[in-house]
C-alpha cells in the first residue's frame, strides 16, 4: 500500500499540477548551433523546421497552428493522445507530460503560434496564442575607424594601449560604424582578437543604438588579456548579433605594438664637457643644464623597415648608433615643460622636466621659482588661487605672482602677450601685472601660461606655471521630456553640441540633469 500511494502522488504532480503551455522551441540556428529558447524570446532563427515542446498533462490532445499576421491559417497539426509514456524533461530540468511537435520550415515573417488542448471527448480545455517571428538575416555593418587622443601616429591599422614606460597612447578607441538591423533589431556585440595561431579571445562590447556603432576603448582593444603578444599582427573585430541570434562579423588585420623602445638620458658635465648617464639627485654645476636623449637608430621604423618602433623625427643630430635630441633644463623647474617621442603605433614617451631631479653645486646661480600665483576675476571682483576654473563667462584683469627672493631682478610675463608683465626687485618676493583675458561668448579653453626669467637676460626664460580657464556660454538643448505619473519618473533626452569625443571630453560634458515639477497646488519640487 505504501508503494502504491507513492506512485499516485508522483503521477498527480505531473498531470493536475501542470498548466498547458509551450515549454520551449528547439532548432538548429543560422550559426549551425543547436538552440533551445523560451517562447518569450519571440524572435527565432531556425535554418529549416523547428520543434515545439508543449506541456499538456495526461489524456490530452495537442493542436498546434501557425497563423499569418492577418489571421489566416498556413499550417496545423494534431498530436496523438498524451499518455504516461510522454513524460519529458525540459532543457531547464522541469518534468512534464506533453508532446514535441515539429513546425515545417517557414519564410521570414511574423506569425501567431496557437496551442489548443482538448480532452478525450474532444472538448477544448485551453487555448493560448504566442507571437512568433522568424529572422534569418544578419545585421548590416559598415566601416572601422578610430578616435584620437592627439599626437600624430596610430590608427585602426596599428595601435596600442599605454605601453610600460610610456605615458600616453594616441589612439583613443576603435569605432565600428554603420551597424543596423531591419529585422529583429540589434541585440549585443562582442569585440574579438584572433592571434597568429588562430586562437580567438573576446569580450562583450556595448552598442550605441543611436549612432549605430560600437566603440572599444584602446585599453580594451589592445589589452594583454586579448592580445598576449606585445608585438604582433592580429585579426581584430566585432561579432554583431540581432535579437533572433543571427551574427555578422566586421573585422580587419591590425598591428598591436605595446613595446617602448629603449632610450638613454644623459647630462653634460659642465666641468669636463663629457656626457654622463642621468642619475636622480646628481650634482650639476651650470644653469641651464644640458640634457640629451639617445635612441637607437635600429629602433626607428624608417631604419628597421618594420611597423615596430619609433616613428617621430624629434631629434637634432645623429651618430653611427643613435638619433640624439638635446634640450636645456633650467633649475629649479617650476613649469610643466616636457619632450615627447612617439612609436608608429601611437605610444607616447613623455619626459617631463619635473621628473628629473638634480642637486645644484653651491656656486650655481638659481633661476626664479614661483611659490604662489593668483588671478583676479573682475566680473566677480575676486582673487582666485586655484589653477583651473570652469565658468559660463569670465574676465581676468590681473595676475599676482609670489616667488622666492633672488639677488637679481626677476621678470614674469604672460606667453600670450609679452607686454603683460611685472618685475620683482632684488631681494623681494612679489609683483602684479595687468592683463586682459575675456571669455564672454561661445565656448573654449585656454592655458594662461606664465614665463619667468632674469630681467634683461633671456638665460633663465622658461615656463613657470599656468592657469586653465574653461568656459561655456552655450546651454544644452532638451529634446524630449516625458513624465510617467504612474511610476513617478521623468525620461529626458538632451543634446549638447559642445561635447567632444577627445581627451578634453570632461570640459563640456553634460553632467547634471535636473527637473522642477509643479503640483496642482503650485508647489515646486526637484
From TrEMBL:
It comes from the Bacteria. Residues 18-136 form the DUF4165 domain. It comes from Escherichia coli. This is DUF4165 domain-containing protein. Residues 138-257 form the Ig-like domain. The keyword Cell membrane does not apply. Keywords: Plasmid.
Amino acid at each position: 500500500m505504501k508503494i502504491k500511494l507513492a506512485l499516485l502522488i508522483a503521477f498527480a504532480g505531473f498531470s493536475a499540477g501542470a498548466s498547458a503551455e509551450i515549454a520551449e522551441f528547439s532548432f538548429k540556428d543560422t550559426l549551425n548551433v543547436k538552440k533551445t529558447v523560451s517562447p518569450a524570446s519571440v524572435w527565432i532563427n531556425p535554418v529549416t523546421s523547428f520543434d515545439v515542446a508543449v506541456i499538456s498533462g495526461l489524456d490530452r490532445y495537442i493542436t498546434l497552428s501557425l497563423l499569418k499576421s492577418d489571421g489566416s491559417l498556413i499550417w496545423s497539426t494534431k498530436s496523438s493522445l498524451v499518455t504516461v509514456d510522454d513524460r519529458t524533461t525540459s532543457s531547464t530540468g522541469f518534468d512534464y507530460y506533453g508532446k514535441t511537435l515539429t513546425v515545417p520550415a517557414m519564410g521570414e515573417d511574423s506569425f501567431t503560434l496557437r496551442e489548443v488542448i482538448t480532452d478525450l471527448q474532444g472538448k477544448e480545455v485551453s487555448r493560448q496564442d504566442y507571437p512568433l517571428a522568424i529572422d534569418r538575416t544578419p545585421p548590416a555593418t559598415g566601416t572601422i575607424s578610430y578616435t584620437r587622443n592627439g599626437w600624430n601616429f596610430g590608427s585602426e591599422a596599428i595601435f596600442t594601449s599605454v605601453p610600460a614606460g610610456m605615458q600616453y597612447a594616441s589612439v583613443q578607441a576603435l569605432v565600428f560604424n554603420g551597424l543596423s538591423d531591419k529585422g529583429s533589431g540589434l541585440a549585443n556585440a562582442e569585440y574579438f582578437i584572433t592571434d597568429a595561431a588562430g586562437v580567438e579571445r573576446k569580450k562583450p562590447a556595448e552598442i550605441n543604438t543611436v549612432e549605430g556603432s560600437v566603440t572599444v576603448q584602446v585599453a580594451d582593444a589592445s589589452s594583454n588579456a586579448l592580445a598576449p603578444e606585445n608585438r604582433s599582427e592580429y585579426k581584430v573585430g566585432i561579432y554583431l548579433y540581432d535579437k533572433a541570434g543571427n551574427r555578422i562579423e566586421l573585422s580587419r588585420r591590425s598591428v598591436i605594438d605595446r613595446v617602448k623602445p629603449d632610450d638613454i638620458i644623459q647630462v653634460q658635465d659642465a666641468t669636463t664637457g663629457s656626457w654622463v648617464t642621468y642619475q636622480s639627485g646628481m650634482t650639476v654645476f651650470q644653469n641651464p643644464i644640458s640634457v640629451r636623449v639617445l635612441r637607437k637608430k635600429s629602433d626607428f621604423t624608417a631604419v628597421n623597415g618594420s611597423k615596430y618602433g619609433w616613428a617621430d623625427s624629434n631629434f637634432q643630430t645623429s651618430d653611427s648608433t643613435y638619433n640624439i635630441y638635446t634640450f636645456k633644463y633650467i633649475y629649479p623647474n617650476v613649469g610643466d615643460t616636457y619632450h615627447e617621442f612617439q612609436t608608429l603605433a601611437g605610444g607616447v614617451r613623455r619626459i617631463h622636466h619635473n621628473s628629473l631631479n638634480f642637486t645644484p653645486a653651491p656656486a650655481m646661480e638659481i633661476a626664479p621659482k614661483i611659490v604662489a600665483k593668483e588671478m583676479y576675476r573682475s566680473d566677480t571682483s575676486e582673487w582666485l588661487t586655484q589653477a583651473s576654473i570652469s565658468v559660463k563667462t569670465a574676465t581676468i584683469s590681473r595676475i599676482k605672482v609670489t616667488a622666492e627672493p633672488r639677488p637679481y631682478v626677476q621678470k614674469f610675463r604672460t606667453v600670450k602677450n609679452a607686454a603683460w608683465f611685472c618685475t620683482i626687485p632684488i631681494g623681494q618676493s612679489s609683483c602684479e601685472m595687468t592683463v586682459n583675458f575675456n571669455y564672454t561668448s561661445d565656448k573654449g579653453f585656454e592655458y594662461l601660461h606664465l614665463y619667468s626669467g632674469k630681467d634683461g637676460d633671456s638665460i633663465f626664460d622658461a615656463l613657470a606655471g599656468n592657469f586653465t580657464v574653461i568656459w561655456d556660454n552655450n546651454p544644452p538643448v532638451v529634446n524630449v521630456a516625458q513624465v510617467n505619473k504612474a511610476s513617478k519618473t521623468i525620461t529626458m533626452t538632451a543634446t549638447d553640441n559642445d561635447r567632444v569625443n577627445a581627451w578634453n571630453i570632461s570640459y563640456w560634458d553634460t553632467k547634471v540633469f535636473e527637473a522642477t515639477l509643479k503640483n496642482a497646488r503650485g508647489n515646486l519640487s526637484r
